[in-house]
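tool=predict chain=A
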Amino acid sequence: MIRPSLNDLAAFAAVAGHLSFRRAADVLGVSRSALSHAIIGLEGKLGVRLFNRTTRSVSLTEAGAGLLARIDPLLQDLDLALDTLSEERGAPSGTLRINANKSGALILLKNVAPQFLTSYPDVELDLVSEGRLVDIVEEGFDAGVRLLETVPRDMVAIPFGGDVRFIAVASPSYLEGRTAPITPEDLQAHRCIRQRLPSGKRYRWEFAKHGAEIAVDAPGNLTLDDSDLLTQAAADGRGIAYVPEHFAKPFLVSGQLASVLDDWCPPTAGLALYYPRNRHMPSPLRAFIDVLKQVERRR
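tool=predict ok
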């Protein structure tokens, strides 16, 4: 048997962890074809088949599951040893992968990334912006950013950026000749711009006042999936939109939008950086958290 290389075993562990050549290739930064060839080569060296492959799925064979059980702890120990060495020489290095929604990515890019990248030039920051909620462990991320209320309970969460406030807005031209809504129920008589979540579900607008909470399936014939688009459509007179206040603020200042239902739109807990509770923290992530906390103290 030809002894496989460390790269061979790392490629196998990535595919086994994700059960997807596409996801594993994205994490490793290689093409799917290159990764597939690497796995075929590894199976040839070992003389056993490690994966069952179909056009729709990937699963471990019995031999593959046995190999993963033996090498996964060794690879984790190796990562820990390299992180420890990096910490001892006082210079975090490697890649830090963070999955964030658009708002979180913009805040980190503007307020945290400049100081972090200047202070730690040997770290590559890979900031992935998407709206869907992902399993950051399964998909190979070191940390994630989401609204605090959506962070899984088994994660450590570090709030940042302050509270957020969603508001209902419409253009003066749309409101002209119409009775502005006084309560969320009044939205049923209006044309609203609905929002589609990355999961495919339509977002129900959530309001609160004096302890009373209500979620509204707003009526309307236009559905969008991006806060910038929702805000612009409202400014263009397409109806009432429900968006984070910071997206609407420039339009409110210019007079292109007016807010409605203000007393039903209290601030709520904002964004949080989160990471697994019971896993070793890579030195780049520890350094990023330190910078994030410094920025928050100055805010």
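The chain is about 40% helix and 20% strand. The CA atoms of residues 192 and 249 lie 19 Å apart.
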